[in-house]
Each structure stands twice: as structure tokens, then as C-alpha cells.
Design brief:
elongated; 74 residues; 4 helices
Amino acid sequence: MAAELSAEEFREVFRGCAVKRTKRAGIRRNAAIAMGNSGRQEFLPTLEKLASDQDESVAESARWLRLASPIGYN
């Protein structure tokens, strides 16, 4: 899952690809937002984990989804 890619996995998966310009944090943040907006309960554990991610942009997005997500994160 893109939101949980390690730095090494990101480099390997996107080697030689234009997606690398987006940077790992951007891909992970966007994946968290997509999960939250999906309305799928199965993503709640991942979003909860990402809410305390060391990358603040990822963590902030996941925390925001607690309030705004159609999943009923509360």
C-alpha cells in the first residue's frame, strides 16, 4: 500500500519513474487522503497508524481525517 511504503521500497518501486518527483511524503499523504475519502472501514487501522507518522504532512492529514472522513473515524 502506497501509504506504508518505506523509503527503500519507494526508491525501488519508483526507480526511473516521474512519480519520484512527487516525493515519498506526497505519495503517502495523498494515499492517506484517498483512504479517508473512500469511506471504507478497512482503512481505519492504517489511518490510525499514520496519524502518528514521523512525517508531519502524513500525520496531519491522517489526523484531519478523524474529523472530516466519511468513514466515521470518531
